[in-house]
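Hello Y.,

Per our agreement to keep a running log of every chain we model this quarter, I'm adding this entry. I've kept the format consistent with earlier entries: sequence first, then predicted structure.
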Amino acid sequence: MTLWVFAYGSLLWNPGFAVAERVRACLPGWRRGFCMRSIHYRGTPARPGLVLGLDQGGECDGIALRAAPGTEAATRAYLHDREMIGSAYRECEMPVDLADGRQVAALTYVLDRVHPLYCGALSLPEQAQIIAAACGDRGPNRDYLWNTAAHLADLGIHDPDMVWLAEHVRGICTASGGK
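Predicted structure for the entry above:
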C-alpha cells in the first residue's frame, strides 16, 4: 500500500527513508510552529530546546513524500521511532492537498496539546532566546531552525515566523559571539 508522509520540519531536509516522489503539499487546519520542548534531539532536560510541531489552526505548506515501493512498513517503523521519542506527537493519517491537484492521505505527526512538553503559548522573542541557547543529541537548536528555514525558502514556501526567528536567532548568536 502506498505511504505518503507530510514533511513540514526536519523531514524536509532529512527524511531518513527512501523517497520515490516529492510534491509540494498543504495540510489544512494545522500550522507549523516551535511549540514543543525538546529534551533529546535539540535540548536537554536541564536546558530544553524547541522543535517544530503541527498545532491546530491555519494551514501548513510543506512537502508530501511518497515512500519508495516496498519500504512502507520499514518507513512507518522508522518514523514512529524517530517522531514518537517523547510521545508528544499523535501519529495520524491526514488528508493533504498536493500542488498537482491530487489529495492523498499522509502519515502526519501532530502535537498533543495536553503533553507536558507542549508550549504553544511562547512568543517569538521567547522562542528565539531558547533556540539560540539550546543544544541536544543532534546538535544546536539553531541549526535545526536554520536548516528548516533555508529549505522552506528553497521550496518557495514563505513562513513569516520562520524567517523572523532565523534572523533574530542569527542576531542573538552574533551578539553573543556564537555562530
